[in-house]
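Chapter summary example.
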Amino acid sequence: MDITSELYHMKAFPVKMAGHTTTGGTLSPVRLAMDRWHKQVGESMQTRRNFAICGETGDGHFLKREPYPVICKKRVSMDAFDARADLKLNLMKELSQQKDKNILKMAGTLDMMVSHQVIEHVAEPLMAIGVINAMLSSGGLFIFSMPFIAQDHRGPTDFQRYTVEKVDLLLSCGGFQVDSLIGWGSALTSIAFLAGVGGEALGEKDLQEECKGVEGCYNKVYSAIFALATKKHNVTFRGVSDCAAGVTKK
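The structure predicted for these 250 residues follows.
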């Protein structure tokens, strides 16, 4: 422990606390695992269904990665605060209040929505999940991730971290069927991330550590949450809020 402390204070660990990449250009454990999971989900969908329109909250760079250009006939990036986005979707505004009128035209048409490391930056996640629901068609696929262990990374805001149980509640109350819910990582990956150790420094077995579902992740240490969900029905912000309040009061 004395050696670890000395290395830390000397800033001798191989990664700076940027959350995504290291000083040498390699990825943090969380980002490496998220990128791999994102690709695995896409590959699993190649033979299962076709996606006419795929959306992404952000600048759209995740949908540019293989195999998404192959499985998505059309890809649309959506972010009210990113100049690179195709549409200006504000996750804090109901569709009737969106300034970009093209949002209303596309509402209910997406076959897939990707949202990685975004919800922690939204002041009211219950509103955000309702907006994402409204953009998806019935049976649309939602690919979602969120950090559990991370430094304050404002872009321009950073409001919360959620447990596996809270993500399950958010998705369920948001009108989704939760198909897969993973608490990725362990105490080791969490320590590595916070201390500034890159994902490539960890063994393959360490990068595959995970727990599954609310009960499977009880009392477990994990670093990030990956979820796959299917839209089952439309929701309203009031409905999502009442659902979440009802669950937490039990």
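To summarize the output: The first strand starts at residue 51 and ends at 57.
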